[in-house]
Amino acid sequence: MNNYIFEAEGKTKSEAEEYTLETLRLQPGDLKFEVVDSGKSGFLGITQKKPAVVRAFVANKDIPSEKIIHGVIITILRKMGIPAEVVGMGDVDGKIYVELTSKESGLIIGKRGATLDSLQFLLNLMVDSKIRHNRKIVLDIESYRDKRELSLIRLAKSIAASVIKTGKSKLLDPMNPFERRIVHMAIQEDERVFTRSEGNGTFKRVRVISAKDKHKYKDLEDPSKKGLPVDDFADEAEVD
Predict the structure, then answer these.
(1) What region holds the R3H domain (predicted)?
(2) Strands (DSSP E) along 74-167, which ranges?
């Protein structure tokens, strides 16, 4: 995005600029604008008028990072053709949580949250390139991540029950580090089963194994981590 933090359209350049300031709740001196397209009138008043397009850049270095985050994520989604609004933003444990709402929430979430995770990664990358605030941004929409966490906890306990009953290990679908950690933590207190991660890269799979077979995997555990797999504690750097 070449360091601009927001792109807007309007019937005129002035209208697009006013919309930007209103959306980000900033003052005229906080931003400087670049005209991408001045707009064109429709032919003889019959064809549709082409809107004016402006891009906003930071002019005041004291602008809160939350304003920049707001502008960047909305611009990304608009370029994807997805209308959305930021309905909440706050700092929790050093991370900035951004809550969205949209009629197209399913498109933003994607399959098992894959699109949401990709958007979160892109948002962090772009914001860091502009302000280098060294805080992770957690992107969510309509409390999807809370719902996903509860779903993963239920899944982990259900799979654990199956493994205990049959004695056969179960391999879950690929997950990101944050989701794998939820699964590990959900059943770590159950001494009848244990977990390990398999695969390479960010998206690995969690295997739930009967404690009767634990002797086969001793080399993959770190007792100092309460029995959780070593590789997913290494992944904490990705999660945090």
Answers:
(1) 146-212
(2) 85-92, 95-101, 137-141
